[in-house]
Design goal:
Layout (H helix, E strand, L loop, with lengths): L10 E6 L10 E3 L14 E8 L22 E4 L17 E9 L8 E7 L6 E8 L2 E6 L5 E6 L6 E2 L18 E8 L4
Parallel strand pairs: 5-11
Antiparallel strand pairs: 1-2, 1-3, 3-4, 5-8, 6-7, 6-9, 9-10
C-alpha cells in the first residue's frame, strides 16, 4: 500500500500492450506476503498494475484513474525472458461515491446509465450501465474534479451540482473520502 505494507487479497493485472485485450485481463491475487504469480501469459509486452477496490484502491489500468498512479511497470516476455518480477504499489486511494438511484415520483429503485468525466480533461471518462444501480458504490479519482451525469430513457438527466465544491458542477474527494448521493430521476413530461 502507500505505506509500504504488504497487502493480502489485492488483485494484480497484466494488461496486454501489443495486442487486443481479451474479455478478461490476466490477473492474480496476492497472498499474505503480498506475492503473486500471473501464469499462462503469451509472449509480449504487459503493463502490470494492482487494485483492491473494496479498500478504495481502483483498477489503475483504466485511463480514468490515470491521475492516481505513477507510471505502471511494463514487462516484456519472450522465449529468452519467460519470467519477470515486479514490485507494485496500490497507489493512492480513490474517492468513494455511494448512494441510491430511484424514480423521483414513485421511489421505485432504478438501474441507470452514468457518465463520469474529468472536469479539466473531458476526454478522460468512465461510463456505462451498471455503475450506478439502484444502490451503488463506485471509486472516482481523488483530488481531481469529476463531473457526473446519470440518465435513463424516459427520465430527465440528473447532474451533480453543489455549492460546496470548488466547481459547483463537479465532485472533488480526497483519498478515501466518501460521499453519499441519493439520486432521484424525474420522469420526462
Amino acid at each position: 500500500d502507500e505505506g509500504g505494507t504488504f497487502v493480502q487479497g489485492a488483485t494484480e493485472y497484466a494488461h496486454p500492450l501489443d495486442r487486443l485485450m481479451a474479455a478478461i485481463i490476466p490477473h492474480a491475487t496476492t497472498n499474505g506476503s503480498g506475492s503473486f504469480t500471473i501464469s499462462m501469459l503469451d509472449y509480449g509486452r504487459y503493463s502490470v498494475s494492482a487494485a483492491k477496490p473494496d479498500e478504495g484502491y481502483p483498477e489503475l489500468y483504466l485511463a480514468f484513474y490515470a491521475g492516481l498512479r505513477d507510471n505502471l511497470p511494463v514487462v516484456r516476455l519472450s522465449a529468452k525472458h519467460q519470467f519477470a518480477s515486479v514490485a507494485l504499489s496500490l497507489g493512492n486511494k480513490a474517492g468513494i461515491l455511494t448512494g441510491t438511484v430511484a424514480d423521483a415520483v414513485t421511489g421505485q429503485p432504478l438501474n441507470a446509465y452514468v457518465e463520469f468525466r474529468w472536469a479539466v480533461e473531458p476526454r478522460n471518462f468512465l461510463s456505462g450501465s451498471g455503475l450506478t444501480n439502484a444502490e451503488f458504490r463506485i471509486l472516482v479519482p481523488s483530488n481531481h474534479l469529476v463531473t457526473m451525469v446519470v440518465s435513463l430513457e424516459g427520465y430527465e438527466n440528473w447532474r451533480y451540482q453543489t455549492d460546496k465544491s470548488p466547481s459547483k458542477n463537479a465532485i472533488l474527494l480526497r483519498p478515501g473520502e466518501e460521499l453519499h448521493l441519493d439520486i432521484r430521476l424525474s420522469p420526462k413530461r
